């Protein structure tokens, strides 16, 4: 299912802006109507990286939509991950091994300002004293888990500056992704595609389950769960495949889809439309996956309870893929969605807003 | 570069002054300067007198690259998109090719203009220092010139001009770059109407628009004059109204137009001779300009900022059907008339060269602009694809358009590769260098610094996409070695496996095994448990994997299975020399176990190994126990097997 078979859906508007830095993570600010157009970005590969709060200023008359920076925060190291806890707080992972809790503060003047509310300094490090990149974060209410290249898992909470728990040699390889399966259970993936489930209540520093992405040492690049069915876990990997598990059943993948050219950089389910999936890749593709015949199932002619992603075979036939943007030949590093708007950060130091997605 | 062009930098360091300087390249656009005493081969190889344990400094000298400025980074990124479109348009060989290329050339210019606008906005901000403001002004000057040159080159070398009648295009170009007159006219007309002619800008604006061929504006301005009712104004208005125009749409032939024009000017000349305009000097001057009177044109020169503004006006009235190849001679004439031959600026020289169709000169000159090759790279590329550069191949020996373009692409791409973020854009340019682009990538890619595994992955992917497997391998090796230094053997092993680096894998497996001999603990068991087919990367790893399996079976109490594995390992010929004593010692508890583990044949294998390896010093204190255990096991096994046989 490569780009040539994916049709370009031109019905939505595309707005690009060059921002003079490479955006590695982009996230809509969650929450109420007043924050509909606000988003944050984190940069990489700069001498001085930044976290920025933006507003997509919409001007209906001129059809001229462009983002402007509300607040900018100098950040130490590459921004490896950003996760919102609620509309005012989000956590950032740094390649310097630190994790920061950032706050979007409203000043008395009404202006918004980014500031660093809490810092867990250098909680990822190697035994020789070198800093280790903190590669990913997962959030469950106020609880945070960070993983890093040092193979360490840190359990944090937004209420305390102390690290609640640290599993030092959780993995002999670098950890790249982490996901909360339950409030006390996390899933990690490492450089070799080894997936481990950890019970955070257990006192032993060993995983409760271990399984492999595939036999070929493929590195997973992103991990997500289904918005309404948390046991349904999907991983994107460096070779462009999408692997699905139903962790209720067992740890063998339900299906593996060869999707993108190049590595998959991010995957997101639409929070309000769980049958819709969005993915982007290092080859510059950004795709919208949608279930076929959804109207049919809506009318009750088909069993609408069956999750397409759990279908063991012919998943491809049940899905439609739309290309959201003509490829620019450069990696799309990150994407996020809110209602019918998709934003993404591209390796050509630009961010794009795609408006009016057909859901 | 001549000696005079050399830049001199002072290194403020005492030790450097006394000992002398050494320098070495630091990829990609820096070099390190340090105190260094020069030695010749004849001198003895002894520590320098200047050497000491005191701290000394290393200075990094860096080529400052304006394209790294945040505003110009937008230009770099945006134009790279257009560059890629140009390349794909070329490879698609569309029938609309010429038109597409022209469109893309305009796209480049609009990117430059957007950049100029951004620079202008930035200058207006309060929070910048004076030196920053000066810097921005320099950028504006540079990119203004670039746009001006590009526009002219687009007209002369890219656009297809019907009938080669270049003047309308030339006027557009001049109007575009001297928008002042039109702006002033708009201000005047929209302002206080009654005493317009008293305004100091009034006549300069009339002449300015007149020279740009904006006859409608000239007539409007004249109509606003309070003396418009007079006969001389009426007459001039009438004359201007009847000016013949040439364009492709009204489908008159060029000959017809020339004839009309001749009639029109002859008529004006008659009126001038009859002194019909004499009452108003300015109007008289306008009419004399139309008929091309030398003194009139000399008088108007002072209204022109540049020779090319003059040129466009002059040609409009005296040579309206000028062909593009005739431009050069008229350009030189204008320069002579304006008397600026001896103080031509860089921009003047480039524009003149372009009008003379001397593309070599154009490219030579724009190479020396200080925007790090952005301009010459993109212009040469589009000129190459439009076919203008290849025309020169016939004229000049050993010249190929492709090679010239490639050399500029290579320079520009290399500059971008030196930037921590723009390297990805740089790769795009190197990819389109057919001859040595790949080799350049092969050299540059491994020199891009990386500190995270994400970036390592990115670099490896770029290398693999170009089938530069040795580069990918070397990046894996670097990351592996780093992991090792950090005490992460498991991670190092994964990187070794990712690049299928057999020797490195073996080296790491050895490390794990030796560590085990030291402290009795196997490292990275989570990895070893799930090796799968990767194990086949090296014999040593197979052994390590199998040995780990042996451990697991032993711990699980599966002694029978354990014994089989041990025997097959002993017989396998992949046991490392230093590990024999450990492996044979592992046999003792199994030989002595309550349940019979080894068959007679198995025991022979163990005994055979013992005989072969008895010389190993580490075995010295165990060998007698082993022999005894083996003998006892053999007796048990023989009896057991004999019973079975019965």
From TrEMBL, chain A:
Key words, A-Z: Nucleus, Repeat, WD repeat
A Pfam family per the record: WD40
SUPFAM superfamilies, alphabetized: WD40 repeat-like
Main location per the UniProt record: nucleus
Location within or outside the cell: Nucleus
InterPro entries: WD40/YVTN_repeat-like_dom_sf, WD40_repeat_dom_sf, WD40_rpt
SMART domains in the record: WD40
Coiled-coil region list: none
Record GO cellular component, one term: nuclear pore outer ring
The protein's name: Nucleoporin Nup43
Organism: Sitophilus oryzae
High-level lineage: Eukaryota, Metazoa, Ecdysozoa, Arthropoda, Hexapoda
TrEMBL record, chain B:
Cross-referenced PANTHER family: FROUNT PROTEIN-RELATED (PTHR13373), NUCLEAR PORE COMPLEX PROTEIN NUP85 (PTHR13373:SF21)
Localization: Nucleus, Nuclear pore complex
Source taxon at top rank: Eukaryota
Self-association and partners: Component of the nuclear pore complex (NPC).
Family stated for the protein in its record: Belongs to the nucleoporin Nup85 family.
One GO biological process term: positive regulation of DNA-templated transcription
Coiled coil: none
Keywords: Membrane, mRNA transport, Nuclear pore complex, Nucleus, Protein transport, Translocation, Transport
Organism: Sitophilus oryzae (Rice weevil)
A GO term for molecular function: structural constituent of nuclear pore
Name of the protein in question: Nuclear pore complex protein Nup85
Known role: Functions as a component of the nuclear pore complex (NPC).
């Amino acid at each position: 299912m490569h780009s040539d078979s994916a049709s370009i859906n031109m019905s939505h508007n595309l707005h690009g802006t060059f921002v003079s830095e490479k955006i590695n993570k982009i996230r809509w600010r969650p929450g109420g109507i007043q924050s509909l157009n606000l988003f944050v970005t984190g940069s990489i590969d700069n001498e001085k990286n930044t976290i920025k709060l933006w507003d997509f200023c919409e001007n209906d008359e001129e059809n001229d939509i462009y983002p402007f920076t509300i607040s900018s925060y100098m950040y130490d190291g590459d921004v490896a991950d950003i996760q919102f806890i609620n509309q005012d707080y989000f956590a950032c992972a740094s390649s310097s091994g630190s994790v920061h809790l950032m706050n979007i503060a409203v000043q008395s003047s009404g202006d918004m300002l980014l500031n660093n509310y809490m810092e867990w300094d250098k909680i990822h490090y190697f035994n020789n004293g070198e800093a280790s990149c903190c590669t990913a974060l997962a959030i469950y209410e106020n609880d945070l888990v960070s993983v890093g290249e040092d193979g360490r898992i840190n359990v944090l909470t937004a209420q305390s500056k102390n690290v609640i728990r640290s599993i030092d040699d959780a993995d002999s390889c670098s950890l790249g992704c982490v996901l909360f399966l339950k409030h006390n259970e996390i899933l990690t993936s490492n450089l070799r595609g080894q997936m481990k489930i950890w019970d955070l209540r257990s006192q032993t520093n060993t995983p409760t389950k271990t399984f492999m992405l595939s036999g070929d040492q493929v590195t997973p690049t992103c991990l997500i769960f289904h918005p309404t069915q948390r046991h349904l876990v999907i991983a994107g990997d460096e070779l462009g495949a999408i692997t699905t598990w139903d962790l209720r059943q067992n740890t063998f993948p339900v299906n593996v889809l060869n999707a993108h050219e190049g590595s998959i950089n991010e995957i997101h389910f639409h929070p309000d439309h769980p049958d819709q999936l969005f993915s982007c890749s290092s080859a510059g593709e950004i795709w919208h996956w949608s279930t076929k015949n959804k109207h049919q199932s809506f009318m009750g002619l088909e069993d609408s309870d069956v999750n397409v992603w759990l279908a063991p075979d012919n998943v491809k036939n049940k899905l439609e893929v739309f290309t959201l943007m003509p490829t620019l030949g450069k990696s799309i590093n990150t994407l996020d969605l809110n209602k019918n708007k998709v934003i993404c950060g591209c390796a050509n130091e630009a961010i794009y807003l795609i408006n009016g997605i057909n859901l | 570069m001549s000696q005079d062009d050399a830049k001199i930098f002072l290194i403020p360091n005492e030790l450097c002054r006394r000992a002398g300087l050494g320098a070495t390249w630091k990829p990609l656009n820096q070099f390190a300067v340090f105190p260094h005493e020069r030695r010749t081969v004849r001198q003895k190889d002894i520590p320098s007198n200047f050497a000491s344990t005191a701290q000394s400094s290393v200075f990094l000298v860096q080529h400052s690259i304006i394209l790294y400025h945040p505003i110009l980074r937008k230009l770099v990124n945006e134009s790279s998109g257009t560059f890629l479109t140009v390349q794909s348009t070329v490879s698609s060989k569309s029938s609309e090719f010429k038109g597409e290329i022209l469109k893309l050339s305009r796209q480049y210019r609009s990117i430059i203009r957007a950049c100029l606008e951004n620079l202008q906005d930035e200058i207006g901000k309060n929070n910048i220092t004076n030196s920053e403001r000066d810097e921005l002004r320099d950028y504006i000057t540079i990119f203004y010139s670039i746009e001006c040159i590009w526009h002219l080159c687009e007209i002369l070398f890219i656009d297809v001009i019907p009938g080669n009648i270049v003047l309308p295009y030339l006027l557009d170009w001049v109007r575009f770059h001297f928008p002042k007159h039109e702006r002033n006219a708009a201000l005047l007309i929209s302002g206080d109407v009654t005493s317009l002619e008293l305004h100091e800008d009034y006549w300069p604006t009339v002449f300015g628009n007149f020279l740009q061929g904006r006859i409608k504006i000239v007539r409007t301005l004249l109509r606003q004059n309070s003396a418009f009712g007079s006969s001389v104004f009426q007459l001039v208005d009438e004359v201007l109204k009847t000016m013949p125009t040439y364009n492709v749409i009204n489908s008159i032939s060029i000959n017809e137009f020339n004839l009309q024009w001749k009639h029109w000017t002859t008529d004006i000349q008659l009126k001038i001779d009859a002194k019909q305009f004499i009452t108003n000097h300015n109007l008289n001057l306008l009419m004399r300009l139309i008929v091309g009177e030398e003194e009139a044109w000399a008088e108007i020169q002072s209204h022109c900022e540049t020779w090319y503004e003059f040129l466009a006006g002059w040609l409009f009235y005296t040579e309206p059907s000028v062909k593009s190849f005739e431009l050069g001679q008229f350009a030189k004439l204008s320069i002579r008339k304006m008397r600026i031959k001896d103080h031509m600026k860089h921009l003047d020289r480039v524009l003149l060269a372009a009008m003379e169709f001397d593309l070599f000169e154009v490219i030579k000159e724009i190479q020396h602009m200080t925007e790090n090759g952005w301009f010459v790279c993109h212009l040469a590329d589009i000129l190459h694809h439009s076919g203008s550069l290849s025309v020169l191949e016939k004229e000049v020996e050993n010249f190929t358009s492709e090679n010239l373009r490639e050399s500029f692409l290579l320079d520009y791409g290399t500059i971008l590769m030196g930037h921590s973020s723009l390297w990805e854009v740089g790769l795009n340019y190197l990819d389109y260098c057919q001859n040595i682009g790949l080799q350049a990538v092969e050299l540059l890619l491994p020199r891009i610094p990386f500190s995270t595994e994400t970036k390592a992955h990115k670099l490896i992917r770029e290398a693999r996409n170009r089938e530069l497997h040795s580069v990918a391998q070397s990046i894996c090796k670097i990351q592996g070695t780093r992991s090792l230094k950090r005490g992460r053997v498991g991670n190092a092993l994964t990187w070794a496996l990712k690049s299928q680096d057999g020797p490195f894998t073996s080296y790491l497996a050895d490390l794990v095994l030796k560590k085990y001999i030291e402290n009795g603990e196997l490292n990275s068991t989570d990895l070893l448990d799930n090796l799968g087919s990767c194990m086949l990367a090296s014999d040593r790893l197979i052994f390590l994997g199998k040995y780990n399996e042996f451990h697991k079976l032993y711990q699980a109490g599966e002694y029978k299975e354990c014994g089989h594995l041990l025997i097959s390992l002993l017989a396998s010929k992949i046991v490392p020399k230093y590990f024999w004593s450990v492996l044979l010692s592992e046999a003792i508890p199994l030989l002595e176990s309550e349940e019979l583990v080894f068959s007679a044949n198995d025991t022979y294998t163990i005994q055979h190994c013992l005989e072969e390896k008895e010389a190993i010093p580490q075995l010295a204190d165990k060998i007698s126990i082993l022999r005894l255990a083996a003998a006892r096991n053999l007796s048990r096994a023989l009896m057991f097997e004999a019973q079975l046989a019965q």
